[in-house]
Amino acid sequence: MNRTTRTAPATAGNADHGSGRRRHPQTNRRGGTSRTATRPPQGQRRGGGGGAGAPREFAVPVSRTPPLPPVETFDGLDMPDRLKTTLRAQGMSAPFPIQAATLPNALAGRDVLGRGRTGSGKTLAFGLALLARTAGQHAQPRQPLALVLVPTRELAQQVTAALTPYARALKLRLATVVGGLSIARQARDLQSGSEVVVATPGRLKDLVERGDCRLDQVAVTVLDEADQMADMGFMPQVTHLLDQVRPGGQRLLFSATLDRNVDLLVRRYLTDPVVHSVDPSAGAVTSMEHHLLHVNGADDKRAATTEIAAREGRVIMFLDTKHAVDRLTADLLRSGVRASALHGGKSQSQRTRTLTAFKSGHTNVLVATNVAARGIHVDNLDLVVNVDPPTDHKDYLHRGGRTARAGESGTVATLVLPGQRRDMNRLMANAAITAQHTRIHPGEAELNRITGAQAPSGIPLTAADTQPPQRTGPSQQARRNRPARRRGRPSRTSAR
């Protein structure tokens, strides 16, 4: 595949933060001479000036090769008919804007730099192209052909679930590689052969170093939520992995924000990318309402939180710490609200059960730290509440991105104590969001109007009440009817 090679040169003295090496402007990752010029950084802050802490966005590269025009329907895309049939079966009648703009170019093999908020349709924007370009190939053991890197376990599982129907249609094998689950089982999946791997950087690096995975056959690489990978300190692992994929391969980078950390990845790994931004304001989604709910003190905040949690319908509530999440969850259960906790201190199996219960409606309230701010998609979730306001505008955007997804409407409400008002005003300016300010009191109609808040039942619940009832199948019933073992012959279960 012939493409014009073009990357942005590093400026004199500019260091490569991911590797500790200085960049050489005269060479690029594909072995050619780089002669790219990009617009100089304009130093303009997100949100029109905001506060002094607003991060700068870099000037995106100017593509030398004109992009292909967007399409209006999936039928206009050059991809296998089996993918189009599966799209129709999944109820996908027309592409979302980021899909319409990037898919024609990604299917043609171009590198893509896409900015879009969570819920904008990014997963299929890169997923359909990755699968179409991998179709018909067969991976050798431990040698995947396509790679999707994501920052969190939840996002990896969501991406895998979203792509599975389309991968099956093309007879492509998917493997999910994340921490918190058995590394031996993941090694076996790679050994058996997987064309596509969806992974978090740390676990994939472990598998590579163990010799359980090689990346030199990866022809298509996706970085999803690249800004969070940078924020979470994954940049060294990400660059280490990207340096091992096949030279000259295709790179698709998607991010909600384009700050200086993402700039490193763009300059180092993308060649003459097609650039597309769904939402330049990074949060001004017309179907999303933003409310700053001003409360008088901690007592009013606790009471208002409980009433909001008792609403009809589901809600995600964000707090800063694991301890605060566990404490609020226990308080809500005592008040009669079906609430479950989600944070990094939970095992992967606990987190999976909690998310399943929330998505199925057995849990009405998901109380979470920022671990849930990315990678969780719940249909018809119309309210997100920041019980503890975030300290960074990007955290606000990603928390709020759990609602108003895929064209739906939603509300983001933030409880603000008197001492937090100035910081919240600065944060909203940095996020380029205009919020409605309302002074609220527990039990008042205005709180109900905005959030659906109501008094809880007051009938205490336990954590077991938030889980789906366990089904008793024939195998369980047979075991119950099995005669007891004789004494002196311990069962395998009791001997463990």
Automatic annotation (TrEMBL):
Example GO molecular function: helicase activity
Keywords for the protein's UniProt record, in alphabetical order: ATP-binding, Helicase, Hydrolase, Nucleotide-binding
Source organism, top-level taxon: Bacteria
Biased composition (Basic residues): 479-496
InterPro entries linked: DEAD/DEAH_box_helicase_dom, DEAD/DEAH_RhlB, DEAD_box_RNA_helicase, Helicase_ATP-bd, Helicase_C-like, P-loop_NTPase, RNA_helicase_DEAD_Q_motif
Ranges for domain Helicase ATP-binding: 103-276
Coiled-coil portions: none
Keyword Nucleotide-binding listed: yes
Region Disordered, annotated ranges: 1-78, 455-496
Biased composition (Polar residues): 28-37, 464-473
Motif Q motif per record, residues: 72-100
Residue ranges of every copy of the Helicase C-terminal domain listed in the record: 300-451
Boundaries of every DEAD-box RNA helicase Q domain copy: 72-100
Family membership noted in the UniProt record: Belongs to the DEAD box helicase family.
Protein name: DEAD/DEAH box helicase
Species name: Streptomyces albiaxialis
